[in-house]
Design goal:
The chain is α/β, with parallel strands linked by helices and 201 residues long. The protein has ten helices and six strands. The chain has helices spanning 11-21, 36-46, 62-72, 87-95, 108-119, 127-136, 143-152, 158-165, 169-183, 188-197; strands at residues 2-7, 27-33, 50-54, 77-82, 100-103, 124-125. A six-stranded parallel β-sheet has the order 2-1-3-4-5-6, with helices on both faces. It is elongated and about 60 Å long. Pfam families: GerE, Response_reg. Keywords: DNA-binding, Phosphoprotein. One of its GO terms (biological process) is regulation of DNA-templated transcription. This is Response regulator transcription factor.
Length: 201
């Protein structure tokens, strides 16, 4: 049996996936988690063969969970299931040792096949996600600009961003203005949305 951990903060999706995977003769869901930290705890406790991780979860995201699992439980293969993908996200996932990268629109039957592939040391990257990632290209943002946009993405004011980044408000404005100019965005909020859609944050 292939022992699987499912991690997704959307309970309905996670529950439906668990039920559908339970119909497979060679797959058993040994643990479920609703956050990145819970996923790590469940992986440590249940030692699954494959971790199926949502890209975006509360706390740690799927990529950071996969990176930790590679260090702590190298026998556990990780795969990302996402509705948000871009060049940056795909590259980060592959760098973290993720062996599968699939959209949430995949059927349960296909997901089971991909779990089997990943379990036998194979790799699977959805061709549409890969094409989208390639089309998005490399990020024009510097690491500091990307960091400032990430902090601005939830609508935080400049003063709060400056406090969190230990920078002056003027310096933060300069980084955000430069990032917005590079992305052709009228303000930092639009710039953050564009960068996130392209997988650069």
């Amino acid at each position: 049996m292939i022992r699987v951990l499912l991690a997704d903060d959307e309970h309905l999706i996670r529950g439906a996936l668990a039920s559908l995977l339970a119909l497979e003769d060679d797959i058993t869901v040994v643990a479920e988690a609703g956050s990145g930290d819970e996923a790590l705890a469940m992986a440590r406790a249940h030692r699954p063969d494959v971790a199926v991780l949502d890209m975006r979860m509360p706390g740690r995201d799927g990529v950071s969970v996969a990176a930790r699992l590679r260090e702590e439980l190298p026998e556990c293969a990780s795969m990302i299931v996402t509705s948000h993908a871009g060049a940056g996200a795909l590259k980060q996932a592959l760098a973290a040792g993720v062996r599968g990268f699939v959209p949430k629109t995949v059927s349960a039957r296909r997901l089971a096949e991909i779990i089997r592939t990943v379990h036998t040391d194979g790799r699977y990257v959805d061709h549409e996600l890969a094409a989208d990632a390639i089309a998005a290209g490399e990020s024009p943002l510097t690491p500091r600009e990307a960091e400032m946009l990430s902090l601005a993405a939830d609508g935080a004011p400049v003063a709060e961003i400056a406090s969190r980044a230990a920078l002056s408000p003027g310096t933060v404005r300069n980084y955000l203005s430069a990032a917005a100019a590079k992305l052709g965005a009228e303000n930092r909020h639009v710039a953050a949305r564009i960068a996130r859609e392209r997988g650069w944050l």
